């Protein structure tokens, strides 16, 4: 549905997006995940034809966003990070204006407006001034304008930034329901958000795509370590001897606890912590030393995200996008 090939965007000498390629299939919710400054908004602005690329190609439903702008744009609805809401108008007036810009008129326009207001649940506030609406409702109005014209692909840039927890849940539910009839691409710098809503995650860091897969596969693919904690009655020396006979242990620390037992934390290079727990308890038993407690903790998706986007520089010049 959307094909991005070798997309690059330079601002002067700074490369914001670097040789980015990915494909978006029809009918799924995709999450564009990356820390602030990763290049998410730049990519979305280019994909929607709002910004020119320095190099590369974007195709929407087979239409080139630069060469066949009209056909391509008809297939996309876009909610930018800072949507141009007309504060002194009502949602109904604003939607009528956007609908006309999108080429809708008369009965078709009014039908569309009623439809998107129902979907985004803003009918009750349709005739109040936008400036008097809560942030959550303003965001719904922004989503409503993206839906006008019933585009196949809905692109939402940080749709829940600045909302309170209840509004976040409501907007997430709305996005999930949009995913039933549309291809949705949303961006976020928060992993849990993308995990809660999206079937596929694209992780971007410093303008480059560093991973693209389902949350489950990302975990399988990248989790290659686990940490094991155990408590034993064995002495330090006995413990060191037992550990020396085992593979996959890359480091350990030992602390004596208040019962005189040893709390041991093991770093391993195995993603299969359960198998290692088994080997460890057998090894201690063979040495006739009891293990009181043992547990393995796998690296989480959060760890993967932090590792993949590690050392992305803080941006002194750039505002927090939540403002
Ligand atoms: P994100 O949306 O992931 O936070 P952006 O796409 O907004 O990231 O920004 C990517 C990089 O491009 C950042 O380093 C940002 O400072 C830079 N950038 C964005 N817009 C401009 C611009 N108009 N002029 C110069 N640099 C920009
Ligand atoms: Mg952004």
What overall geometry do the principal axes of the alpha carbons give? Answer: elongated
How far from one another are the termini?
A: 32 Å
What average pLDDT do the residues reach?
90
Residue fraction in strands:
25-35%
Structure commentary:
This protein has 323 residues and is α/β, with parallel strands linked by helices. The strands form 3 sheets. The protein has a 6-stranded mixed beta sheet, with helices on both faces. It has a 4-stranded antiparallel beta sheet with strand order 2-1-4-5. Strands 12-13-11-14 form a 4-stranded antiparallel beta sheet, with helices on one face. A hairpin with a 2-residue loop joins strand 1 and strand 2. The longest helix is centred in the middle third of the chain and has 14 residues. It starts with a strand and ends in a 15-residue tail after the last helix. The C terminus is likely disordered. Adenosine-5'-diphosphate binds next to strand 2 and helix 1. The site of adenosine-5'-diphosphate has 14 residues, from strand 2 and helix 1.
């Amino acid at each position: 549905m959307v094909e991005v090939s070798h997309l690059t965007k330079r601002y002067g000498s700074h490369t914001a997006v670097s040789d980015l390629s990915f494909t978006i299939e029809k009918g799924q919710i995709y999450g564009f995940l990356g820390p602030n400054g990763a290049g998410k908004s730049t990519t979305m602005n280019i994909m929607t034809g709002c910004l020119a690329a320095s190099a590369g190609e974007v195709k929407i439903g087979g239409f080139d966003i630069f060469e066949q702008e009209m056909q391509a744009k008809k297939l996309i609805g876009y909610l930018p990070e800072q949507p141009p809401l007309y504060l002194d108008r009502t949602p109904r007036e604003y939607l009528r204006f956007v609908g006309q810009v999108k080429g809708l008129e008369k009965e078709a326009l009014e039908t569309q407006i009623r439809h998107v207001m129902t979907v985004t649940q803003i009918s009750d506030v349709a005739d109040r001034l936008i400036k008097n609406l809560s942030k959550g409702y303003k965001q719904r109005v922004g989503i409503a304008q993206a839906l006008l014209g019933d585009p196949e692909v809905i692109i939402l840039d940080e749709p829940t930034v600045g909302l309170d927890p209840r509004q976040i849940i409501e907007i997430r539910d709305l996005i999930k329901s949009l995913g039933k009839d549309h291809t949705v691409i949303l961006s976020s710098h928060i992993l849990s958000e993308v995990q809660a809503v999206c079937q596929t995650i694209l992780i971007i860091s410093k303008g480059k795509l560093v991973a693209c897969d389902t949350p489950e596969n990302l975990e399988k693919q990248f989790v290659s370590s686990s940490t094991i904690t155990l408590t034993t009655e064995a002495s330090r020396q006995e413990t060191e001897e037992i550990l020396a006979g085992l593979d996959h242990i890359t480091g350990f620390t030992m602390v004596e606890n208040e019962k005189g037992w040893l709390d041991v934390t093991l770093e391993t290079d195995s993603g299969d912590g359960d198998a290692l727990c088994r080997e460890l308890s057998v090894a201690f038993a063979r040495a006739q030393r009891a293990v009181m407690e043992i547990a393995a903790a796998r690296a989480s998706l959060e760890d993967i995200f932090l590792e993949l986007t590690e050392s992305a520089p803080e941006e002194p010049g750039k505002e927090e996008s939540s403002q």
